[in-house]
Amino acid sequence: MRTVKTSSGATAVQIVWSSRRGSRSIEHIGSAHDEAALAALKAAAAQRLAAGQAELDLGVAGRPGSEPLPITCTRAAHLWDALCRAYDVLGFDQATGGDEVFRQLVCARIIEPTSKQDSLRVLDETGVAGPSYPTLNRRLPVFAKAGFRQALSKACADRAALGPASLVLYDVSTLYFETDAGDGFREPGFSKERAWNPRSPWGCSPTRRVPADGGCV
Question: What is the CB-side half-sphere exposure of residue 25 using CA atoms within 13 A?
């Protein structure tokens, strides 16, 4: 909402609607020649902006004729607190030595998967004071170190109670094997690319096993 002076000396009350792409439209509410009319137009514009939303009664009586308090900032507190709580429960805070930049980068990309640079915008919209882009770039080499990654892996393993392990396979749904025979682990079937798994030169049905000596059973 804004007020502008007209050529006739009146004060016009307008609502300016804008988007991130830079386009905007101006809605003219009316023009006033005195303070009382101006206050009435501002009240009408405020109702138009609220679009029928009810006001939260905080039990604080305002002065007659006073305007609503300006919104200086917003914060998605419940969302951010929940993500930070999950981050701590997983042990990431302890594993990273309390690295706040890494915490913010992880939580921001959960809220909106985007680039590291654009994650700073996500933090700002969430109401969190994030690091500067140069600071983020300076921390990236630290995050890429083997010791840093191993500490995170250990935290995940401890949380999942994996115990001693030498091999962990995950997210292999897009892989398939090519072999002449099934072995109890690799058997005929479809992969996501609709390829035989394993591929057999005998053209066996995907529901049949491939014996080691050839042919279909």
Answer: 2
Distance CA 17, CA 103 (A): 35
Cα distance between residue 30 and residue 47, in whole Å: 14
CA 169 to chain centre: 27
Name residues whose C-beta falls within 8 Å of residue 181's C-beta, 6 or more positions apart in sequence. Answer: 198, 200, 210, 211, 212
Q: Omega of the bond prior to 164 within 30 degrees of 0, cis?
A: no
Window from 11-25, 52-66, 81-95 with minimum mean pLDDT: 52-66
Number of Cβ atoms within 10 Å of the Cβ of 14: 16
Q: Find the DSSP H helices in the chain.
A: 35-50, 77-89, 92-95, 100-111, 116-126, 133-143, 146-160
Q: pLDDT above 90 covers what percent of the chain?
A: 31
CA distances for 180 relative to 75, 192, 210, 216, angstroms? 59, 20, 8, 12
What's the length of the chain? Answer: 217
Question: CA quadruple 44, 49, 52, 56: dihedral positive or negative?
Answer: negative
Q: Among 72-76, 78-82, 161-165, 203-207, where is mean pLDDT lowest?
A: 203-207
* pLDDT computed for residue 215 by the predictor: 41
> 140 versus 198: which is more confidently predicted?
140
122 touches 114 (CB < 8 A): yes
